[in-house]
Amino acid sequence: MKLIGFINALIAFIGIIQVSAEIINTNEYITELFSVNIVETEGKKYTVNGNTCTVDMIFFQGTASGHYFNGDITCRDCTNVIKTYKDGRIEFKARYSLVGKDFNNSNTNIFIEDNLLGYDENKQPITKPTIITNSNNLSFLQTADIRGIIEEINGNKIIRYMWNENNKNDVPYPVAYIPDETKDYSKEVFVFNIEVGGEGYYDVLGANEIQAVSIGFTCTSNTSQFQGKGLDNFVDTRFQFPGQPQTLSARYILDGVDNEGNPSRVYVENIGVDFFDRVSTEPIIITDNPKWAWMEKAPLHGNTNWTNGLHIELWTINDPSLWENQQPEPQPEPQQEPKQEPKPDDQCSSKIIAQGYKCCSSICKQPYVDENGEWGVEDGKWCGCIENKNSCPSTITNKGYSCCSTCSKVRYVDEDGKWGVENHQWCGIPTMCKE
């Protein structure tokens, strides 16, 4: 079946948003500049079901028509990323380029980054676009007060870009976000190998030397923690505004396996600035791997490394107590059996001990793994997971469930093993636990 509309998934969630979203008034936006007919590219929608939100990356095509501009969407940076958060919030940011003719029949390139603002009284999504164009006739679009109104007409999604001509003030350019560099980002999270190419290089140089640049790339990961590759060709989008450093924003999804062979998908939104002598980013990570769920709220930092090719290195701070989503210590249930402590001869990785860390005193529920071994967290500090611990059956963990942190009461038994409950969630009873 032909899929139409790059925000189909978004429209399905409008009912959730209406509870808290303000109604966006568009009465002053009465001059239509042009409209864009959006068609989702069949087979190019990728989803990551994370801990805090679900991410949909949707590639699309389309055409533009109107008094001020007529043209087509290029197939370079033409993606929309929709984030549906567990708390009901929805965000989307679409990026695409147009090639065609302006109202004076001059060759014209336009780059658009469209951000969801909310909904109007008719429950239509309203966007605020950032527009950059090389057309002198359309240079006013870069600072004009414009809204996008998304409508459904005859089954198609159409974005109508409307201009508030009565607002004579220039809309300010987006301000570059400078990533935090005050913390000690010394704990490696991921390393991605980047191959520049993909959809190639494309740029739009607008008035006042404002510039939008799209740099195509492919990506892989080849570390002990994660073996994976990008699901498609992706784009690093860069903006240059007067008096600001060059900003960058690369969005990509890798699919692969973790160190235990579990299928894992990772969405990365690497946002930052390029000072030309160095790159500094503050990435967003969404992943369906429950072991890595902490990454979605942990403070993260990114940089580039050009040793033997281009690599993106992502880091976090070596202090889990500062993570926003640090999980509380498991609370014992009523009448719960005593926890079985590890035997004295159990040892964690010698590489971890050599760094001055202690072995964990109990089973690691969701260990973090790097080249030094398996890490856990106790009392807000890193510790080494016991190497020869008895874990719960893989038939349970392969289904996405964690092992119980204690020898809790057996609540259910099936062909996969013995099941317990912790924090109102099913978990696998460790095999070391006695009957």
TrEMBL record:
InterPro entries, A to Z: CBM10/Dockerin_dom, Dockerin_dom_fun_sf
Which Pfam families does its entry note? CBM_10 (PF02013)
Which residues belong to the signal peptide in this entry? 1-21
Q: Which domain of life is it from?
A: Eukaryota
Q: Give the compositionally biased regions (Basic and acidic residues).
A: 336-347
Question: Which keywords describe this protein according to UniProt?
Answer: Hydrolase, Repeat, Signal
Q: List GO molecular-function terms, semicolon-separated.
A: hydrolase activity
Locate the region Disordered: 322-347
Query: How is this protein named in the record?
Result: CBM10 domain-containing protein
